[in-house]
Amino acid sequence: MVRPNLTGLGVALITPFRADKSVDYDALARLLEYQIKNGTDYLVVLGTTAETPALTPDERRRVRDFVADRVAGRVPLVLGCGGNCTAAVVEELQTVPRDKYCAVLSVVPYYNKPSQEGIYRHYAAIAEATPLPVVLYNVPGRTGVNMTAETTLRLAHEFPGTIVAIKEASGKIDQVDEIIKRKPEEFMVISGDDGITYPLITLGAVGVISVVGNAFPREFGRMVRLALEGDYPRARAIHYRFNDLYNLLFVDGNPAGVKCVLNAMGYIENELRLPLVPTRITTYERIRAVLDSLQ
User: Fold this and answer.
1) Side-chain-side CA neighbours of residue 109 (13 Å)
2) What average pLDDT does the segment 223-238 reach?
3) What confidence tens digit (pLDDT) does each residue in 98-117 have?
């Protein structure tokens, strides 16, 4: 199993839709070229930001294959593959094209609210079933349960060849710090929250899987790389420029905010699938004002 390099800027791709709510593959192709041209280090396909729960199984397969074929190896690809039924996740993992995706990103089971032992056994089953490296994804604001540092470290130490990283979006700086302090050397900690990416890198995180990077891959990627190089003053200056946008992108939910930005930039139609809806007009106007200041 080849260990992927997930250092730097990873972008959690959106799924663009047309006015009739069908997947807009032309817009998706434009976004992929935009990402590659502007130096994104890797792309995450079919994650939360892709509105994956609102896609049919056939649409998920088509998006997965379309992105892989269009990117054609120019940047590494990570595939979102998670759920709250362990057996179903294990079954789906068998269908992931190993020659096109370098890793899978799998979220902590949601709604069931498993115990820490249940979370551990869920990921142990995944690690034993998949031939691809696994990136854990802890986002308690969405799943309803926090995977503790102890559980993350247990998995990292017991499955060093398979469980290679965690996308940490708990917002708990002390928890992330504990993971970084006690993890195996090669285990990667990745920020799952744009707004705290800069401070997490100063603690030892290797980068971010980003939402704002959909719209600003060059600028946000520069902040990430400067921070990784230890040039904290210049990285911090870019971080502060994005401060207002960090908050606005999530006022009306994700990916409503970043789709609003991409629409204002002329890349996509401002369409989401229910139960998600576009940003309110007041949020849209505030985002436009911030966008004008960043361009």
Assistant:
1) 22
2) 97
3) 999 999 999 999 999 999 99
Residue 103 phi/psi, 5-degree rounding, is -165, 165
Kindly name the residue from 137, 198, 267, 284 that is annotated as catalytic: 137
| Domain count across the chain | 1
9: DSSP letter: E
Q: Which domain holds residue 152?
A: 8-240
292 domain-assigned: no
Q: Is the pTM of this model over 0.85?
A: yes
Measured between its terminal Cα atoms, the distance across the chain in Å is 42
CA–CA dist 110, 14 (Å, integer) = 21
Annotated catalytic residue: which of 100, 101, 167, 183? Answer: 167
In a domain, 205, yes or no: yes
Give the tens place of pLDDT for each residue, 8-18.
Answer: 999 999 999 99
Q: Is 42 labeled as catalytic in the residue annotation?
A: no
Q: Examine residue 191 and state whether it is found in any structural domain, yes or no.
A: yes
Q: How far apart are CA 9 and CA 216, in angstroms?
A: 11
Catalytic, 137? Answer: yes
